[in-house]
Design brief:
Purple Acid Phosphatase, chain A, domain 2, 5 helices
Length: 213
């Protein structure tokens, strides 16, 4: 299966439209949050609308900068995997939105214990994990200042259960791929700046891509 992995749209509708015009031959879309930039559910629905034109399954979590009603819209659209598990053509996806606790008191923040236990309770062997927060202590959560800002609960879960893939976002400058045991963790980079990734789950390959200028 080829998965289009995107995150941190931050309200950039034009980037979504450009992506839909450029992408081809993907089997599903996974969205790792921050669809809006402190916007509401109506904003999120409008931003996501072009993606439904791809005609493939979409699953998403909200980010810490999405408004309080964005989760309600994702639920209404039938694409939310926050604190739950869904399947796409037999492939399980377990999700958790928002971030671990930050110094900034953003809209959606959770304790590392809650992140860990939710993933543990919903996970089945072989599932892909979709989170907004990246795993702690990796290249995917390192800020410009050198601080690691990811989730220790997610890191603990990955180390114990070794899902095949973890798709995350949140830290814009930490775009990349890192292997934790047998888990391939991917931060596609912010779509707001033109970044995205395509993951081939069968060949376990990740392609870091950018919109054409």
């Amino acid at each position: 299966m080829k998965i289009l992995a995107i995150t941190d749209i931050h309200g950039n509708y034009k980037a979504v439209k450009r992506l839909v015009g450029e992408i081809s031959e993907v089997d599903a879309v996974l969205i790792a949050g921050d669809i809006t930039h402190f916007g509401n559910g109506r904003d999120a629905e409008e931003i996501l609308k072009p993606l439904f034109g791809l005609g493939v399954p979409i699953l998403a979590v909200m980010g810490n900068c999405d408004g309080r009603d964005v989760l309600d819209v994702l639920e209404k659209l039938g694409i939310s995997v926050h604190k739950r598990r869904r399947e796409i053509e037999g492939l399980g996806v377990v999700g958790f939105g928002g971030s671990n606790i930050t110094p900034f008191s953003t809209i959606w923040e959770f304790s590392d214990d809650e992140i860990y236990h939710s993933l543990k309770d919903n996970y089945r062997e072989g599932d892909i994990v979709l989170t907004h927060a990246p795993p702690y202590g990796t290249s995917l959560d390192r800020t410009y200042s050198g601080v690691h800002a990811g989730s220790k609960g997610l890191r603990r879960f990955i180390e114990e259960y070794q899902p095949p893939f973890c798709i995350c976002g949140h830290i814009h400058e930490a775009r990349g791929i890192e292997t934790l045991g047998t888990t391939i963790a991917v931060n596609p980079g912010p779509l707001s700046r033109g970044f995205y990734a395509v993951i081939d789950t069968e060949d376990r390959e990740v392609f870091k891509l950018k919109l054409k200028s």
